[in-house]
Amino acid sequence: MSVPEREFAPGDGPAAKVSVSLRAGNIRAVRERVGARGFSAYVDAAVERQIERDLLEEALQANEAACGPIPQGLRDEAAELFRSVKSAPELQEEGGWRAHEAS
After folding, report:
1. 6-43, pLDDT tens digit by residue?
2. What letter would DSSP give residue 70?
3. Distance separating alpha carbons of residues 63 and 12, to the nearest angstrom
4. Whole-angstrom distance, CA of residue 39 vs CA of residue 61
5. Residue 42 and residue 36 in contact, taking contact as beta carbons nearer than 8 Å
6. Conformation bin of residue 68: beta by default, left when phi > 0, alpha when psi is -120 to 50
7. Are 68 and 75 spatial neighbours (Cβ–Cβ below 8 Å)?
8. What residues contact 48, with CB distance under 8 A and at least 6 apart?
9. Are 43 and 30 in contact (CB under 8 A)?
């Protein structure tokens, strides 16, 4: 059964078999992380994340075209906030932020 891609949003719809070519090192790294049975799900999630990043970049570019560039001071503030959250001790514990959120 062929599934028309245009009918489903990224991340939605039934699974469909496709053929892709990947570098041998990437194949090895994925298999080491998830084994052979989790390979498709891992690649599917990676593709979905890349689509989200592409859409975010497009939205940022459209906003910048409409409103001008983000001031450097705000960029610096956002970068510092990201660094502080990323290095927070509670996020370094086993399980990361998801485990912290659940407690």
Report:
1. 689 888 999 899 999 999 999 999 999 999 899 999 99
2. P
3. 27
4. 33
5. no
6. left
7. no
8. 10, 11
9. yes
